[in-house]
Design goal:
Layout lengths: L2 E4 L9 E2 L4 H15 L2 H10 L18 E6 L11 H7 L3 E5 L6 E7 L12 H18 L3 E7 L7 E5 L4 H11 L8 H9 L7 E6 L5 H13 L3 E8 L1 H5 L5 E5 L7 E4 H25 L3 E6 L4 H12 L1
Helix pairs in contact: 2-4, 4-5, 4-10, 6-7
Length: about 325
Amino acid sequence: MTGEILVADGHPGNFIQQHHDLALHRQLACQKLECRGNHLALSARRVVEGNTIGLHRSPVKGASVEFRQHRLYVPGDEPRRIDWRVLARSDRAFVKEFDEETNLRATIFLDASGSMGYGAKQSKFDYAVRLVAGLSYLMLAQTEAAGLAIARAGGGGDYLAPAAASTQLARIVDLLERANCEGPTALDRTLLRTADRMDRRSLVIVVSDFLQPIDSLRKGLARLNHDRHELVLVRLLHPDEISFPFRSWARFKGLEGETPRLIEGPAVRKIYLENFKKHEDQLKQACRAMKADLLTCPTDQPLLNAVMAVVRRRG
């Protein structure tokens, strides 16, 4: 029997079995996410509260109120940090920065490319959204600053600067609720563009399937490593991408615009697994070169396991 499969040519892990129209599936998934409203924040609280509080350790200890510099205001900054005198003189909003204002500053990058839409009951993107919400809640609950960058096609996307304000979780959840995954991967360009806006050393968590050419990804990681940010890569994979269980002829469609192909699953399984392993080895090598931690999280494991893996790796 011929099934409906999704694949992005050239990237060895983008194989998905799809039982419904992709556009309709994405639309329903986004509608479901929007309807949840504050339930996403509540879910994040339930995931981490009582399980991970106290396990997270910050690399920066103590606090200081020594003035460091001015920088341009970006959405997510607290209005009380605005230097109103500078605003009156220049008609431009600047905020004051102080050395070590919080124990930790973290920016979470969320890959919103088409390949993240893999999965019928729960896509990788749905899992990633919940993971980002859980990690954000955990950091903000400990009065640490959390921010969010969503990597969209073309290298654009939303950016919310790290902040420890009580309203920051609501801002993050709002961006997550409105996010959807589509288009070709542009994670590397988003890393480079956002690095220009990150003027202080911080923790950078990248949540993605990393199904893109490693050479291009290495450029973004190299920039962050050069700026002395601490890097943690969270690699989300569907079990099908790991084992390629397809046992019959199937039509493979591109998640990111590739031409459909009719393929006999068993005939290509060995080649697929070899390419998958080769891509994985290249990613691990790039992470070692950039001094980045790499965590692989299958989306069939409980969300708490993924949160705990990030916490323990940093602890």
